[in-house]
Amino acid sequence: MMSKPKLTDTLDFPTDLNITKSLFGVGIVGLIASGLGYFLDHGQFFFSYLVNFAFFSSIALASLFFVLLQHLTRSHWSVAIRRIPETFSSNIWIWALFIIPVLLGMHSLYHWTHPEAVAHDPVLQGKEPYLHSTFFIIRQIIYFGVWSFLGYRMYNKSIEMDETGDWGLQTLLRRTSGPGLFFFAITLAFASFDWLMSLDPHWYSTIFGVYYFAMSFQVMFATFILLILFLWKKDLLTNTIKKGHIYDLGVQMFGFTVFYAYIAFSQFLLIYYANIPEETVWFLERLSGGYEYLAYFYLFGRFVIPFVVLLPKKTKSNYNIVATISVLILASHLVELYWLVMPVLDHHGFHFNWMTVTSFLGLGGIFFGLFFHKFKQNKMVPVNDPRLADSLDKH
Questions:
Q1: Residue 4 has what DSSP assignment?
Q2: Which of 115, 128, 198, 273 shows a CA-CA span of 20 to 30 A to 27?
């Protein structure tokens, strides 16, 4: 028999902590401001929106992968913190609504949606069976259908285990996770192709799906760390999620910092080495006109500095250091997505627009508002998971 975990914390999110209303308020104001910007420059609106949609979607999707992976591997260390990614991934079915502005702005975002452009471009004609507006919309429905089903199912069965104490549900969750990871990998790769890579339909990278995944998984750990530190600041789960969990998250974040750098450099090196004009021009546009400074920022912000700082063992247990690096990684992730997207709109050089900020606040407020709205509905920890005692004892 597995031992019953000894929990001394209050596991219910405080009802008097009105963070949800504040976040939704910020989100609504940000979206309204961005909506007003649409009438001033609708092209800028859609590009700014896409940057931030890809940013927050990456956190939700990486969280879904994390939950599936933990169940499939029967992981113990992560049980105490697993309700956080479960909550993020459970909201994907609602977050799917925010793909609608991207679909409405397809003509502004994606060059291949212009029939006259396709008619005079042999490359676009060759890709037309895939880069087709109707098929694009159908693919988004499939992607979010798969992610929503997996996220909703993994969360609900975990909550059911809390309520019934039926440990047999962990077998069901593990059996769902195996094929779930397979379908997740395929849909995430193609979603990254659709949302980001097809902005420039003449350029492609076969590693781009892994590149977006590596970015997402690294920033997911940074998000978890900051959320846990926020909960601690509110005197929540201070005896349940322990210092060792932060250390483990720091180790994982360090590991995926290296993995991200490996994937990003591999993509760059292969294109640089081949020196094919239609491939190198994509990088040339992003390494000139002011965009090179954004590249330097995210190069140091999400690899060089985190690698050097997190390399010593002690720094991964220092809350202030880990929190600072997490913020830097999140900022670098946003800058890198901006660097990927905006040169398609601003060919002649870097030009910052305020709608990027309002879209960030709008989508971010809604994204985290949905998180805390769901997070406070049930226990903040999977209390009846049979591996919870081991997760607590290990740390």
A1: P
A2: 198
